[in-house]
Amino acid sequence: MGYSMPKGKELITVNNTDITPLITELVEYVKTQKAIEGVDLEELIKIPKATHPDWKIICGVLCNAIVEWCAMNKEEGGKDLLVHLQNDIGYILKRLGLTP
User: How many whole angstroms from its chain centre is CA 55?
Assistant: First the structure.
């Protein structure tokens, strides 16, 4: 018989933080690990190669989110953040082989 979280019980730390969701996820993770024991995870979980088009989509979505946030917060440091991240984003794209 497996362990399950008691219904309606919250797990509160001494700092008054509810860690019930974290513990619930941890219990589910352990259950999953037990269930997939012996399964070759490398065959199930593969990160796309650097040249895979999904990386371009991922980078584009993240860049758009950053630009939108910067535009909404340009008076509170958004412009500075955008300038700072330009080099980092360029480096990532170059390392993934998505730019020359």
Answer: 14
pTM: 0.38
Residue with tokens 């070759």: 40
Q: Both tokens of residue 88?
A: 């980092």
SS3 content of the chain, % helix, strand, coil (to 5): 60, 0, 35
Q: Name the β-bridge partners of 18.
A: 12
What is d(CA 71, CA 82) in angstroms, rounded to the nearest whole number? 9
Q: What are phi and psi of 17, to 5 degrees?
A: -105, 130
Query: What DSSP character marks residue 18?
Result: B
Q: pLDDT tens, position by position, for the chain (100 residues)?
A: 455 555 667 777 778 888 888 878 877 888 887 777 776 666 666 666 767 777 778 878 887 888 888 888 888 888 788 777 877 878 887 887 777 7
C-beta separation of 19 from 11 below 8 A:
yes
Sign of the alpha-carbon dihedral angle for 65, 69, 74, 80:
negative
